[in-house]
Amino acid sequence: xxxxxxxxxxxxxxxxxxxxxxxxxxxxxxxxxxxxxxxxxxxxxxxxxxxxxxxxxxxxxxxxxxxxxxxxxxxxxxxxxxxxxxxxxxxxxxxxxxxxxxxxxxxxxxxxxxxxxxxxxxxxxxxxxxxxxxxxxxxxxxxxxxxxxxxxxxxxxxxxxxxxxxxxxxxxxxxxxxxxxxxxxxxxxxxxxxxxxxxxxxxxxxx
Length: 207
What we know:
By secondary structure, this protein is α/β, with parallel strands linked by helices. The protein is built from two helices and 24 strands. The protein folds into two domains: 83 residues, Rossmann fold, CATH 3.40.50.20; 108 residues, UDP N-Acetylglucosamine Acyltransferase, domain 1, CATH 2.160.10.10. Helices cover 12% and strands 30% of the residues. An eight-stranded mixed β-sheet has the order 6-9-12-15-18-21-23-24, with helices on one face. The longest helix has 13 residues.
């Protein structure tokens, strides 16, 4: 559920701008970015960028990790939880969320993304612009499904995965933790080992 008053966004890179775009489209009235490299007085679209945040969150605010990297996103989500702050889930108004689906805290479901019925999206995941995660899929924690990627029904993707832009995963496939699938790749079989897979159909180029 999108927060209603304000959002503290950890990060100020390109993905943070995408996060802000979804938050604003969802009607978020106030934003603040936290980035250790922020310049004095820096802002984005009129919202402040600060080097660190001291003290509690304002009433009604939530926090969100805008790290594009899966491991850093996990660290930031754990930091937010350790502080006792509410961890936001952001869903773009143009996204389609199927009946019975479950989206855990810290997720970004971006513009025109589609999450099918009975799908589960784990903590801290990104389902990026126009990506499709179909019915009864399971996406493990801190996995990124990139723009225009398609994960067909009943597939299982492990934790800390990356599904590259425009990649296709056929139905019923199981993919291990820590698997990177290259842009435009096609996965037609289960991938049981961590690694980097590219091509049509995919092949492992890790070694």
